[in-house]
Each structure stands twice: as C-alpha cells, then as structure tokens.
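G., the chain you wanted modeled:
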Amino acid sequence: MKSQRNISEFILLGLSYDQNIQIFCFVLFLFCYVALLAGNLLILVSIRCSPLFHQPMYYFLSHLSTMDICYTSMVTPKLIADLLVERRTISYSNCMLQIFTMHFFGGIEIFILTAMAFDRYAAICKPLHYLLIMNRTRCSLLLLAAWAGGAVHSFPQFFMVIRLPFCGPNEIDHYFCDIFPLLKVACTDTYITGVLVVAFSGMLSLVTFIVLVVSYGIILFTLRNLSAEGRRKALSTCGSHITVVILFFGPAIFIYLRPPTTFPEDKIFALFYTIIAPMFNPLIYTLRNSEMKKAMRKIWCPSLFSKEVHS
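Predicted structure as tokens:
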C-alpha cells in the first residue's frame, strides 16, 4: 500500500477553532464519556449479577451496553484529547483502524437493536410461545448473527478505503476518520466508492430503521388487546427502545443516505450516534424500567433493598 500513498498521518480539523468553545466541549464531552462508561458498566454489572441475565431482553441489553462502550471508545477519548492540543493528527494506520472498528461495532449495535425488537415482538404478540421462541440458544444465535452482520458490513468498506491512494492534502474536516470526509482527500475519482458506501451504510441504516418501525408498529397495534397494566408496561419498554432507535438511526440516515458529499453539520449529527445516544441508553433503559431499578438496588444498595422488601 505504500506505493499508493505518500502520507503517514492525517490532520483532523475538529469541531471548532475557537479556544473557548474547545474548552467548553472538553468539559462537556469528558462528562459525557464518564457518564457513558459509568452508566453502561452499571447496567452491565447489574444484569450479569442478577437473574435478569437469563431473560432475553436483558441478555441483549447487556451486550448492547458492551457495544456502546466499545463503539464510542473508538472516537471519544481521541476527541477529548484533541480538544487540548493545537495540532490534531491521527496516523494513517489508526485512521484505518478507526474506520473499521466504527463500522464493525456500529453494525453489531444495529443488529442487536433489531434482535431486541424481535424479542419485544415475541413477548407481546406471541406471549404463550415466548419462552420457546426466545430460548437461550436462539438468543445466542441472534448475537452471533449480529457479530457476523457487523463483519459483513465493515470489511467491504474497509477494503475499499484502504485501497485508496492518498498523495495530496491530508486535512480531514471532521473530529474522527469517517469515510466521506476521507474520500475528499483521496487523489483519485471516488464516486463509485461513495456510491458503494451509501449502499452499505445508508441502505443498511434505512432498511433496518424501516424494519424496526414496522415491527414496533405491529407491537403497538397488538397492545389494544392487552389489559391496562399490560399496555402500560409494554409501552414503557417499547418506548425506551423506540427512543434509542430514533437517536441512533436518525443522524446516521442523514449522513449516509445521500450522494457522497459532506456538510459542516455532519460533525454535529455524528455526535448523536457516537456520543449522545450511547450516553443516554443507560438512562433510557433504567429510569423507565422497574425491573432494572429493582435489580440495581438489590446489587448496589442491599440494605436499602432489604428494608423495602420487609416494609
């Protein structure tokens, strides 16, 4: 590959040149990242150390929290560190690694969200057969399929990008290595590559989003047959999932499902699926979930939980 490029690093232009804005962003994103790690680790440990781990929804949720941590850790620490320096650079190898891991973990997260929607469909629309449909073997196979889907999604795009020649400008107008900004600095015609990226990332996001919307639409239609308490519980759970889906897929569709080009607003939209959505996932899944709150109190505040049980 050395014959195709004469640069060893890229310069990231970041979010802003204003020093005051950079300081504000440093404090904000440091807080977001710490909250993200703490929240997802709290969910992960609480599920793993409680009987909830044997329930399909929480089994998937624990893996979603793991993917949130892996996915955002590929970008956020670098972003936070770059806000403190004047010249933001990333080596060619790390740039390629960032592109691969972002699409790999992002793809896995998309398929886990789809598996969670299928789980909710089985629980609400097929309650009598739920435990048979969502047995542990099938759940494990769905997770294995999610990992395979992430690989199928990421490897072709990675190989397309790694074959591009870079011989001129090396400034990327973004805060991490994303494919579209990288295509702008490649010294070759990248139209076909851009179209293939739209096909792989944009269409995957759109098709998955449509599948999720249709599945939750069917679930909401089925709720009319449940009791008032059953509707309340199901709406609470599905509402959490729908919120996560909108936060993650909305910005991703905006960026990837369009002609291969870049806009200044892309960096703001990218913040939603790289930092904001993974940070809010723990809050969305715990504050509106009585079983999660009960499990967390039992593990982290056992004395308080025992008082509640005996009161």
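The mean pLDDT is 84.

Shout if anything looks off.
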